[in-house]
Amino acid sequence: MYKIAAVVLCLLLWVPYVHAQKQPDAPLQPKIILRVHTTPDDAPRLRNYSFQVTHPDSAEANKEVKSLVYKMQQDAYLLTSADSLYLRNDTLHVKLFIGERFEYASLRNGNLSEGILIESGFREKFYRNVPFKPAEYVKLQQRILDYAERNGYPFASVWLDTITIKDNKIEAALMVEKAFIVTYDSVQVMGGSKTKPKFLMRYLQLYPGQPYNQEQIEATQRMLTALPYIRVTRPPQVRFARDKARVYYFLEDRQSNQIDGVVGFLPDPSRSGNKLLITGEANLNIRNIRGTGKSIGLQWRRVNKGSVILNGEYLHPNLFGTPFELGTRFNLLKQDSSFITIQPRLQLGYYTLKYGKFSVYGEWRNSRILGDVSTQSLRNLDLADARTTTYGFNYLWNNLDDFYFPRRGRLVELELAAGTKTLLRNADLEKSFYDTLDMRTTQLSLGIRAENFFRLSKNSALLARIEGNALLNDQVFLNDMYRLGGLTSIRGFDDYFFYASSYAIGTIEYRLFTAADSYVLLFYDQAYYRSDLEKSEASGWPSGLGGGISFSTGAGIFQLVYSVGRSEQQPLSLKYSKIHFGITSKF
Fold this sequence. Notes:
By secondary structure, the chain is of the alpha+beta class. The protein is built from eight helices and 29 strands.
């Protein structure tokens, strides 16, 4: 029986083998060989060019021939042509004529103005006894046309005049016809936006009677993206009527007016038994009031027990019909029962088409010590009554693709300020205490913020951000310093947990978008800070990490962020984790 089983097994193994032997071999893919024939004079010129010899079919081989001809024509062999092509067996034979190389004998300035010469970079000496390459001539043409389009001549044309060719040497005159000058007529807003054309015209600096500028029209798209209250639905269109240009912008209003609140739960060190301290924040922002671009904002925050922040802001664009923007700010900080600081600011900004927004400002800071502060704190030079007047410069450049939910783009902000700080005498201290202090000192401050959004995929983006500030003064007090910690700086710590005279914070944040206005985030914050108090210097490297979610609901945008932090004062522990959640209602 086992012999029969062995025979059957052998048959089962042998039959597939025999069947495989009988299968015909797969047909080989045909190959086409490209063979180029030239005259003896053209053969040395062809050696300078490489091309693919083997191709899968004759169509691909024909494409290679056309590419070779185009390459040689662009290299000044203007008469290059494939005179004949014929296929024999597996070989495509091509008879290629190359001819002599064409050169400029001279290219004269026909009627180009001095402005065109400077902007286009044209010089007659650059076009003597050099190869005539069509691509380079086209680039020269385009530079001249770009200059004309920027200066009110969108219908200009450029050509070569009085052309003579002798022994493959080209002589010609470069001519330009500007046609007629075109000026702006008006700006029109299309779509459902309530934005006034008059405001838009001044913001984008498209004034009636001003020469048409194509580059300016393209730059206005970036400027519109920086406005939080409108959405661009289509690229702008320009309609020409005789010598006038009317610009149409397709805009929709965004729900940018904001009323929101955030509630935070933190451990309360002043109470026993794992009690929680409830902190909060409320915001009110009204933007694009009556379609004029004006906005007003108000913010209230309770960061810890007894400490309150109140911020206000008003922006007035197109001041007296100019492109300047007037801004005012008011900041108030009451730090428990230690001190209170009031800080108003007046700022004048100017938007440019290419380089963002430049601003100058004046700031008046008044910090007073409250009565509950101990005299010992004053003697240790931790706190002081002071009045500071500073004047500064701010620069902001922004090309983010969306104001609220960016996925690609870059934002850079720089600030520099200088001023004078004057100490004010405190009645609780004897007059001799101030004999060792400089009552009037010069103070400098520097600031930088840079953000870059990298789009990783269709629904995800990576944010890389660094920001820092430095306060430079020989006498720095606790109530002069920057305050760090919390949801807007180093996450994982209480609001205003750190005092710093200088600091830097780096952030990496991954966002996975589940909708156009909803995403899940993971982040890591790494900071360095330094506190330059005269009798108690300190520094540290705090870090925070966590995640969160932001999504739209019928009532607004709900936000939840969970974070933990690590520093010399706080270990990395879930016991010290922070939870912030709130809802942003926009209308």
